[in-house]
Amino acid sequence: MDVKLSDTMDSHRIYLLAEKQDLGEPLAEEVSRRYFEDGALLADRRMLLDVARSVGVTGGEEYLDSENGYEDVRASLREAQRMGIHSIPVFIFQYAGEVLKITHGSSSIQEFEQVLRELPGLISKQKQVKA
Question: What pLDDT is stored for residue 3 in this prediction?
Answer without folding.
Answer: 61
